[in-house]
Amino acid sequence: MKVVLQNLTKTFPNRNKKLPDVTAVNDFTFEIPDGQLIGLLGPSGCGKSTTLNLICGLEKPTSGKIFFGEDDVTDLPPENRGVGLVFQNYALYPHMTVRQNIMFPLQNFKGKDKLPKEEMLRRVEEAARLVQIEQLLDRKPSEMSGGQQQRVAIARALVKMPRVLLLDEPLSNLDARLRLQTREEIRRIQRNTGITTIFVTHDQEEAMSISDLIVVMKDGIIQQIDKPQNVYDDPRNLFVAKFLGTPPINVYKGQVRSGWLWLGEDKVLHVSGVEDQELWVGVRPEGYIPREDGPLHCALKAVEVMGRDTSVVISHAAAVSDPLRAIISSELAPGPEAREIRFALKPNKVYLFDLDEQRLPFTAE
Ligand SMILES: Nc1ncnc2c1ncn2[C@@H]1O[C@H](COP(=O)(O)OP(=O)(O)OP(=O)(O)O)[C@@H](O)[C@H]1O
Ligand SMILES: [Mg+2]
User: Whose CA is nearest to atom 4 of ligand 1?
Assistant: First the structure.
C-alpha cells in the first residue's frame, strides 16, 4: 500500500498568545512507495511524531491530504485506516498476559469484521512467531525484559494485519546491543510481511541501517528525501551534511578566489563552476590524505588508534567545528611526537555550501 502526503500541514496554536503558532509539519508532499521502509529522521521537536499522528489519524491536519493507495483517508477515523502503531512510549496492559495484550486490538473489531475466537488465537500466535516471543505468551509484561516487551508491542501492531505500520522511536528504551538486534528484527519482519512501514528516529545511524528511503526533517520542513547512501554522499544542504555521519563532517569558513578553494592561508583545491565568494566548506573525516607536501596545514592535538584506522584530532584557523577529526589509515598515522600534520583533500569528500547553507556543486580539477 503506497502512502501519499499532499501539502500536509499541521499548526498548533501557541498557549502564549504573544508567541507565533507552531507549524509542526509544514507543507509535506511526498510518496512512500508500496512495501518500503521509510526512516523519518530529525532532531527532537522537528515534527516526526506529529507526522505519524497525522498519518494514523490521531491528529487532524490543518490543511492538505493523505492517501493510502488511491483512497483519500484524510477524514477517516483512526480505527478505519488499517494502521498498526507502536508509540514512542509503548504501553502494554500490565494486568494482561502477552497473549491478551496482542489479542486486544482484534477484540475491538465490530460487526462484520468480528473474528471467531479460534481465528483470533491463530493470528496472535502468528504475530508472536514473527517477533519470536511465542514461548512468552502466558507471561505478564512485568515478567519480561524491555526488548521482549518491545516485541510484544510490535506484535500487537502487526496482529491486525495493518495496511501501514507506524513505529515511533520503537527502540528508544533498549540498551545498545538489544537496539541493534531489534532493529534488524524489525527489518526482517518488514521484509517478510511487505507492509509499508514508517520508522521514526532521531538516530542517524539507525535510520541509515534500516531504511529504504530517509526523510530528513528540521523545524517541520523536509530537508531531503533520498536513499541512505545518497543522503550521506550528496547532502542538499549543510544541515543534512552535519546531521548524517559519525564522526560528524568537519566544517570550515572558506573562500573561492579565481577557481581556488582557500581555507584560511591554505590553497587547498582547484574548483571550477563556483563564483568567487565566502562559503561554508564541509570535509568528511575520511576525506583527508596525510601527505608531507599536502596543502592543508593543521595542528595535531591527539592521535587515537582504533585498529585498522586512526582518528586524528586536529585544529585549523578557518575551522568552525571544534574539534576537527580525520580518519586515516593507521599505516599513515603520525608519530606521538608530531605537532603538525599536512593533508591533501579527497575532492569527492569536500562539500561547498553558500552562506544560506545550500549546496554549491563544483568540479575539482
Ligand atoms: N498538542 C500540541 N500542542 C502544541 N504544540 C505541539 C503539540 N504537539 C506537538 N507540538 C509541537 O510541535 C513540534 C513538533 O513536535 P513532535 O512531537 O512532532 O516532535 P518530534 O520530532 O516527534 O520530537 P521528539 O524527537 O522529541 O519526539 C514541537 O515544537 C512541539 O512542541
Ligand atoms: Mg516524537
Answer: 12
Closest to 214 (Cα-Cα) out of 227, 203, 201: 227
For residue 22, report the distance from its CA to the centre of ligand 2, in Å.
15
Domains of the chain, CATH where assigned? 3-243 (3.40.50.300), 250-364 (no CATH)
Tens digit of pLDDT for each residue in 232-254?
999 999 999 999 999 999 999 99
Residue 24 clears pLDDT 90, i.e. is over it: yes
Kindly report whether the global pTM for this prediction surpasses the value 0.70. yes
- With a 6 A CB cut-off, is 135 part of the ligand 1 pocket? no
305: CA distance to ligand 1 center in Å? 41
Distance CA 169, CA 107 (A): 26
22 CB within 6 A, ligand 1? yes
Q: How far apart are CA 224 and CA 215, in angstroms?
A: 6
106-120 pLDDT per residue, tens: 988 888 888 899 999
